[in-house]
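Sequence in, structure out. Go.
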Amino acid sequence: MNFELPEAVALGAIGEPGNRVFVIQIRTALDAITLKLEKTQVAGLVRYIALILGDLDKLGHLPKAAAVVPPLEPLFVVGEIAVAYSEDEDSVTLTLTELAEDEEAASKVTVEITKELAGTLAIQGTELVEAGRPTCPLCGFPIEPEGHPCPRTNGYRAPKP
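Output:
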């Protein structure tokens, strides 16, 4: 599936921190699809978009972030994500490939967006990731409200959020 300059691309999460499902949704006037992502994929995607945009000239006005809307049933789980910038088109292309054992049969969704929408997506994704549970400064694992048994301290003196 290819989406060229869709009406909206949004990152979102369903559920409570610690038990959230992350999604990316692409919408046009005629179609909308939702794909499931992992939190680390969202974090990596926004970091890479930020690197690409940091090398470009000034961005124009960033559009308002879109929210994910029903239906939220994912078409597939994303395995591989590719991000590219086209100087000729002055746009960012996201290629989201299905997580599948048979790479030949894996579905792909390609989305071409403006660099301004990519900037909005990077901000939205960063806010989404940061809204989750804090991470332990010693081991990097998420900290539950009651603390956690940090492997770096053999479970003692568990950091509090």
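Check: The radius of gyration is 17 Å. The chain has two helices and seven strands.
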